Amino acid sequence: MKTKAAVLHGVNEEWQIEEVELGDPVAGEVQVKLVASGLCHSDHHLRTGQSPAPFPVVGGHEGAGIVVKVGPGVTRFAEGDHVVTAFIPACGVCGPCSRGQQNICDEGAGLLTGLSIADKTHRVSTADGTGLTQMCLLGTFSPYITVNQASLVKIEDDIPLREAALLGCGVATGWGSATEIGGSKVGDTVVVVGIGGVGINSVQGAKAAGARHVIAVDPVKFKRDMAEKLGATHVFESMEAALPVVGELTWGTMANTVVLTVGEMKGEYIAPAMAMAGKGGQVVVVGMGDYAAMDVKLNLFELTLLQKRVQGAIFGGAGPRTQVPKLLNEYRAGQLNLADLVTQTYKLEDINRAYDDMLEGNNIRGMVVFDEEDW
Fold it and tell me: Is 175 helix (H, G, I), strand (E, B) or coil?
């Protein structure tokens, strides 16, 4: 079928809205009509070249919609099902999945190859037949997607699909980085650095876990204000400003967990984050950096003698098939605020302006919303 998509043809170029050809689902695949797609910083890394993927590429990896077609052998979904995309596929049978680590499923090795899980071909192509990479095997900057069933999670029909779209990346990643891999618990002190679509949910997760101090760090006042609204007990414009207060609040024991959810991760952020972590504490690195960057500032004396650790995290350290239903229960219980996360909505045609807004600090999460004109 013919549809449209936001396509990136090279580094530092703008997104182009183009007509594309979307293939029907083959064995194990599902076609979805999307209602919304979140605008994550990770897709901007494609534009800067910091995240490698074969061009041209259809961006987008955070969405929700309704199943319109199913391919042969699909048993998890039927037409009419409401689904959330998962930017990490979960096959359920590989080694990590069998150990309960769906978020590092072996199928994730193909995330940036542009080749489908089912047959290693392209499911989306340009008008002249050139294969298009689908970001994270999804490509949600398009009103229709054809993806493997491993990349979808079925949800109940009572959840608004616009809000549910956020669960596919930002909410699950942020919440889990504080609660699952971050291990926040009652009485903890948790510092979250970078209050965007991911970090704001680390704030919500830490609050829900019962943390005594939830400290949000961001240079943008609007974002600090939103963090206070959604659970932060203290806010600061920088890690340097936060450091002495973390010491005062904790009587010198410092933070249990520091979550780094900055839009662009740099090695120089590790040392000040580690300084805010106490003995036996950890720094959870969530933000993405340049794939070629190797330099990290780290005090090795402090790392050893205070038994601290630096922990990487993807999808919040939890599998999509367990975390998405869990978060929906938090939402129904009033512990997870989804409605306030979307600060502006856009048409697909306005995607370049939307990313300008993100870079200027105007959004917690911007969102592309599809309607009858797109379908």
Answer: helix
Reduce the DSSP state of residue 285 to 3 states and report it. Answer: strand
**Alpha-carbon span 349 to 354, nearest angstrom:** 10
Query: What is the rounded distance in angstroms from the CA atom of residue 61 to the CA atom of residue 32?
Result: 13
- Quote the CA–CA distance of 201 and 170 in Å, as a whole number: 7
**pLDDT tens digits for range 69-125:** 999 999 999 999 999 999 999 998 999 999 999 999 999 999 888 899 999 999 999
To the query of whether residue 213 is one of the catalytic residues in this protein, the response is no
Q: Which candidate in 44, 91, 169, 184 is catalytic?
A: 169
Does the annotation mark 44 as catalytic? no
Rounded to whole angstroms, the Cα distance separating 173 from 129 reads 35
Cα gap 291→120, rounded to integer Å: 24
Q: At which residue do the structure tokens 């504490």 appear? A: 281
Burial of 339 (0-12, 13-18, 19+ CB in 10 A): exposed
Catalytic residue among 41, 44, 45, 234: 45
pTM: 0.94
For residue 216, give the nearest of 334, 208, 229, 247 by alpha carbon: 229
Q: Which of 369, 366, 370, 359 is nearest to 344 (CA)?
A: 366
